[in-house]
């Protein structure tokens, strides 16, 4: 008896092979809610996983959304994003602190003012 479903799975690549055994990226760590955006195009060919990440963050997206969109584990995304950040290809911005967000009553007043127009 053969497992035909294994044929459909394609090649299996372990996450540590994508990161060359690294579990942490270089530089400062970043939050899952951090926003990532491409800042410049690569001058040389990138590995397929890096290209996948670059495609996923053409418009600003969070690290968590990127992991979901690419199907790569968050740990792998963090390491590969660190590589891309070190290469100057992406910018990673921390999430807006809750204290910096407008209060609910201010937003309600703005909404009421807009409705009044």
Number of H- or I-type helical stretches: 6
How does the major sheet shape up? 3 strands, antiparallel
Mean pLDDT: 79
| Low-pLDDT stretches | none
Number of domains: 1
* Helix amount: 40-55%
Into which percentage range does the β-strand content fall? 5-15%
Radius of gyration equals: 20 Å
In whole angstroms, the N-to-C terminal distance is 72 Å
Counting helices, strands and paired strands, the structural category is mainly alpha
Strand order of the largest sheet: 2-1-3
The rough form would be described as elongated
Number of strands: 3
Order of helices and strands: HHEHEHHEH
Protein name: DUF742 domain-containing protein
InterPro entries: DUF742 (IPR007995)
Organism: Streptosporangium sandarakinum
Kindly list the characteristics that best describe this protein:
117 residues; mainly alpha; 6 helices
Task: Characterise this structure.
- With 117 residues, the protein is mainly alpha-helical.
- The chain has one domain.
- Helices cover 45% and strands 9% of the residues.
- The protein contains six helices and three strands; from the N terminus they run ααβαβααβα.
- The protein has a three-stranded antiparallel β-sheet.
- The longest helix has 13 residues, at 74-86.
- It is elongated and about 55 Å long.
- The model has no long low-confidence stretch (mean pLDDT 79).
């Amino acid at each position: 008896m053969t497992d035909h479903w294994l044929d459909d799975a394609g090649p299996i690549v372990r996450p540590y092979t994508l990161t060359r055994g690294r579990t942490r990226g270089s530089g400062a760590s970043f939050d899952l809610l951090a926003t990532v955006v491409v800042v410049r195009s690569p001058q040389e060919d990138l590995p397929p996983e890096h290209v996948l990440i670059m495609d996923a963050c053409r418009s600003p997206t969070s690290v968590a959304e990127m992991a979901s969109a690419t199907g790569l584990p968050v740990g792998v995304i963090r390491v590969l994003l660190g590589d891309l950040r070190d290469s100057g290809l992406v910018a990673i911005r921390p999430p807006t602190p809750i204290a910096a967000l407008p209060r609910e009553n201010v937003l309600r007043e703005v909404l009421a003012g807009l409705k009044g127009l």
